[in-house]
Amino acid sequence: MKLKDKTAVITGGARGIGLAIARAYAEEGARLVIADIDQGAIDEALATLKGEGHGNERLLGVRLDVCDRAAIDDMVQRAVEQFGGIDILVNNAALFDMAPVLEVTEASYDKQFGVNVKGLFFTLQAVAKAMVERGRGGQIINMASQAGRRGEALVSMYCATKAAVISLTQSCALDLIRHGIRVNAIAPGVVDTPMWEEVDALFARYEGRPLGEKKRLVGEAVPYGRMGRPADYAGPAVFLASDDSEYVVAQTLNVDGGNWMS
């Protein structure tokens, strides 16, 4: 029960890595705010958590578009009103797109930076303000990516957004630690979630591959021997949210099966 009676907000929390982290936090005693743009997925996630024995009074689902500043403020207010404050934020909401540099559109650029950078930052800002007002500190975990550690020919904009997440993690951590708020990040590698079907289809289009081949190849290339699974991120997220990581500040933890070493 490392997170007993703590309140955690998880954006993009209704599916994939976000839901895996939510389930782990619930097992560790946390109250949960599942914030996601897909109301249907929120409903399914809450039903799953309730079915696993986590009481309705400890769960709050909020439809959230992180590109909407008013919606972010509303989510924070609802979390504070229901649970008294926020102790943990997992900034997990993100989206992916890809194209050769000569084909990147302004719309794709705006959408990726709007969600992955602007949405992440202003969610962090709104939650951090609530944490400072409460005066009890907190933990903020940003989901970065191995793509933020290097460039990739077809993924220029996504790589740039995740590099920005790593940089923002460092800057925000150095500013907020004086308030007792620890900011860190997790950098996943290739993770077997439903989104990878879309990624695989894009690679098939731009690299002329049959469907499924790119996914198989990237999994085989991981030193560990397979793609990541959402559950692989639950333990690291619990660690960074708990007192076990009390002296860890401004770090981006690689959780990628050995793909990137730093």
TrEMBL record:
Pfam families: adh_short_C2 (PF13561). One of its GO terms (molecular function) is L-iditol 2-dehydrogenase (NAD+) activity. It comes from the Bacteria. Belongs to the short-chain dehydrogenases/reductases (SDR) family. The keyword Flavoprotein does not apply. Coiled coil: none annotated. This is Sorbitol dehydrogenase. Its EC number is 1.1.1.14. Keywords: Oxidoreductase. It comes from Halomonas lysinitropha.
